[in-house]
Design the sequence.
């Protein structure tokens, strides 16, 4: 009887903890890296040297030095290539069977090859001075100071600029 009680208790505990573990699953990992590449977990204050294979979670930051480049592979098969002198954070990432959404904050250079997805996709790239809704599968964002450049293929990126916080004004792209 005692043995059955512990088995049932273990199954109930596993059932209750499974959604929590799923929520904190890694959203991707560093698949390639060269030169000076760094990583900072969401809760950390100091940067650490990054390595290929490191898992990336929502809210973690990565950055490259003047000779650094890295590629992140995401859960959905998308690839983010980060150029030199760049800092990036994936502030939000959600992947379900019928929808996918992400918000990427970037200061520097980013090329994103977004994997095909049959459900609804809601993806945003933010820089210190602009916000772009991504509507293509391959795009490049370059940001330096107040200047932003955006290139896209297989669709047209929707571009916005922040006039005031929470007020967005469409631009022609």
Sequence:
């Amino acid at each position: 009887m005692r043995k059955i009680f512990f088995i049932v208790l273990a199954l109930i505990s596993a059932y209750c903890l499974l959604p929590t573990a799923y929520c904190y699953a890694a959203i991707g990992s560093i698949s390639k890296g060269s030169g000076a590449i760094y990583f900072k977990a969401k809760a950390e204050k100091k940067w650490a040297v990054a390595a290929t294979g490191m898992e990336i979670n929502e809210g973690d930051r990565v950055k490259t030095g003047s000779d650094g480049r890295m590629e992140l592979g995401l859960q959905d098969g998308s690839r983010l290539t980060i150029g030199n002198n760049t800092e990036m954070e994936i502030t939000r990432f959600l992947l379900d069977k019928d929808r996918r959404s992400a918000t990427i904050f970037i200061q520097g250079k980013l090329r994103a090859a977004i994997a095909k997805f049959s459900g609804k996709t809601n993806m945003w790239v933010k820089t210190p001075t602009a916000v772009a809704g991504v509507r293509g599968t391959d795009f490049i964002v370059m940001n330096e100071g107040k200047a932003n450049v955006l290139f896209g293929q297989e669709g047209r990126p929707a571009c916005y600029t922040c006039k005031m916080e929470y007020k967005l004004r469409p631009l022609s792209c």
